[in-house]
Specification:
Blueprint (H helix, E strand, L loop, with lengths): L1 E2 L8 E6 L2 E6 L10 H11 L10 E6 L10 H6 L8 H20 L5 E5 L2 E3 L1 H7 L3 E5 L3 E3 L13 H9 L1 H10 L3 E2 H6 L5 E3 L4 H13 L3 H14 L4 H16 L2 H21 L1
Helix pairs in contact: 1-3, 4-5, 5-6, 9-10
């Protein structure tokens, strides 16, 4: 296991193992709130991923009883942290600070897995929604709870939520600020699997490592193709698929993978003979 480069802040612990970059939110005293310090630490780590060729999957998790409780309500009351200054100051700070996470996480070339335990509410819920695959523990709860504080999702969560659950359900969850448990989130497609609290981490790590075993170039292209296909026409998707497939068919990754496949088939025949 090698240390990743984001060691400057203890709020986000980082390590790389078997192609998986694990980013652990580590500010239990405030529920891993997305204040400026947490935002900068997480953004710094995420913005480096696409340049790290040894990273093939990102695992986002928490070291404490909650995944992320959103913004720091005490800071909102005092007007400190992100909320300092004029309307123009706050808007600029959101664009330059909090939105760094949205751009970096949604712009990852490699897949991301999120392990959600405890509360993922407000901006914490949005943070989970930005990841590609979400696993939840039985204790997890989710909420787009912004209206409870007279706010809207300020980091783009509505964009992700609508694509995951559809327009009508996204509007219902937003307008009611309803808290939903892990099983309800599973039924809506917000999470892929619900796991016991004790096995969430190990299952999430196993999934991330399984993803990271894929050929690196093909893995990145596969994610990009699925991501782009959600917003473009079929003809555009076919053009992208043809170009990517042609490059992969002519590349060494494909040839090596075919060789390994044929070797396994031959070995199976020998053992069954």
């Amino acid at each position: 296991m090698s240390a990743y480069s984001n060691e400057a802040s203890s709020r986000v612990e980082s390590s790389v193992d078997d192609g998986v970059l694990t980013l652990t939110l580590n500010s239990p005293s405030d529920g891993n709130a997305l204040d400026v310090a947490m935002t900068e630490a997480l953004s710094d780590a995420l913005e480096q991923v696409n340049d790290q060729r040894d990273v093939l999957c990102v695992l986002l998790r928490s070291s404490s009883r909650h995944f992320c409780t959103g913004g720091n309500v005490k800071d909102m009351q005092s007007g400190s942290d992100l909320m300092r200054g004029s309307v123009e100051d706050v808007r600029e700070r959101l664009l330059r600070s909090l939105h760094r996470i949205t751009r970096a996480l949604s712009g990852l070339d490699v897949p991301s897995v999120c392990a959600v335990n405890g509360a993922a509410v407000g901006a914490g819920c949005d943070l989970a929604l930005m990841c590609d695959i979400r696993l939840a523990s039985t204790s997890a709860v989710f909420a787009e709870s912004f209206l409870r504080l007279g706010l809207v999702s300020g980091i783009g969560g509505s964009w992700f939520l609508t694509r995951i659950v559809g327009y009508a359900k996204a509007l219902e969850l937003t307008l009611t600020s309803e808290f939903i448990d892990a099983e309800a989130a599973l039924g809506l497609g917000i999470v892929a699997k619900v796991l016991p609290d004790a096995t969430l981490d190990s299952e999430a790590r196993a999934l991330a490592k399984r993803i990271a075993q894929n050929p690196p170039t093909a893995l990145r292209m596969a994610k990009r193709l699925v991501r782009e296909a959600a917003d473009v026409s079929l003809s555009t998707t076919l053009e992208m698929a043809a170009g990517m497939q042609a490059m992969l068919l002519c590349g060494q990754e494909h040839k090596a993978a075919v060789g390994r496949f044929l070797d396994r088939q031959a070995a199976k025949k020998r053992t069954s003979a």
